[in-house]
Amino acid sequence: MKKIAERIWIILIVLSLFAFLVGYLKLINTFLVGILLLSTFLKGQLISDYFMGLKEVQLKYRIIPILWLILILSLIAVAYYLPTTTP
Amino acid sequence: MSKILSQKEPYPPGDFAIWIIVYVELLTFGLLFAGYAFSRRVNLQMFNDSQLLLNQSIGFINTLILITSSFFIVKAVQKIKNMTHSNGYESSIIASKWLFAAMLLGILFLVLKFTEFSHLFAQGITLSTNTFFMFYLLLTMFHFMHVSLGVIILFNLYRKTKMYGYSPENCRGLETGALYWHLVDLLWIVLFPLVYILR
């Protein structure tokens, strides 16, 4: 469990670099939108669990930011994946 | 033994009030994030074209800044919580240095964001330019204000920590301030891909 904060920090940096490269190299497509949303969920959960310290508290407190992430990222996914009607 | 090891803390770290603030902020930003995503569906081309005017590199550097400053805060809180009577003074000084570094990163975030805003305003872009920039400026300026408040909080935490103001038994104020900064980080973690990357 030692150096856990360092490991979380590195994972967050790597996932952010991945998101940046996808955008910078203009690789974004329907599949990668899903991958980016999943990686955003993972980043958010790591911050909530390890930086905010919710991993070691009761589930009723830990679950709220997780549910928020699931709800918001799902809504974003719906907005991106639902077909648009062109006028 | 295994039952004792698996027992969770009954309450989260920090004051109760900060969790109310955290949940209210998550709700507010959540509504804005969803509003952005669904408004984009109405005029995809305009959103995609406007997004090209943003500087993704600055957005990415700001992401690194916030993640790293959050990490520094974690180190500061750990240092205080692992403090003993024999190393109390040294631990406080080291923790205050972590907090100071986090505060400097917060200021750097504000400078870079201010530069980005200035560049957009110089191009004549305002809240009323189009729906994309209305959401972009609303979200990022609202977040900017949160970072500004966070920097002030970090400065106060730094001063108190430097004066040996926290101990493992008495660090709720430090935890509360730290939580606010992590909230600011969490919000940016969603804001960055949504506004700068996804198209």
Give a brief description:
With 87 residues, chain A is mainly α.
Features:
heterodimer; A: 87 residues; mainly alpha; 76% helix; 0% strand; flat; B: 199 residues; Four Helix Bundle (Hemerythrin (Met), subunit A); 7 helices; 80% helix
SSE blueprint:
The complex is a heterodimer of chains A (about 90) and B (about 200).
Chain A: H1 4-24, H2 30-51, H3 59-81
Helix pairs in contact in A: 1-2, 2-3
Chain B: H1 2-6, H2 16-42, H3 44-51, H4 56-81, H5 88-122, H6 131-162, H7 172-197
Helix pairs in contact in B: 2-6, 2-7, 4-5, 4-7, 5-6, 6-7
The percentage of residues in β strands of chain A lies in under 5%
Shape of chain B: elongated
Count of spatially separate domains of chain B? 1
Instruction: Write down the CATH class of chain B.
Output: Mainly Alpha
The tally of helices of chain A reads 3
Global Rg of chain A: 16 Å
Gyration radius over CA of chain B:
20 Å
Helix vs. strand class of chain A: mainly alpha
Strand content of chain B: under 5%
3D structure, described in words:
The complex is a heterodimer of chains A (87) and B (199). With 87 residues, chain A is mainly α. Helix content of chain A is 76%, strand content 0%. Chain A is built from three helices and no strands. In chain A, helix 1 packs antiparallel against helix 2 and helix 2 runs antiparallel to helix 3. Chain A is flat, with a radius of gyration of 16 Å. The mean pLDDT of chain A is 92. Chain B is mostly helical and 199 residues long. Chain B has one domain: Up-down Bundle (Four Helix Bundle (Hemerythrin (Met), subunit A)), CATH 1.20.120. Chain B has seven helices and no strands. In chain B, helix 2 runs antiparallel to helix 6 and helix 4 packs antiparallel against helix 5. Chain B is elongated and about 65 Å long. The model of chain B has no long low-confidence stretch (mean pLDDT 93). At the A-B interface, helix 1, helix 2 and helix 3 of A face helix 2, helix 4 and helix 7 of B.
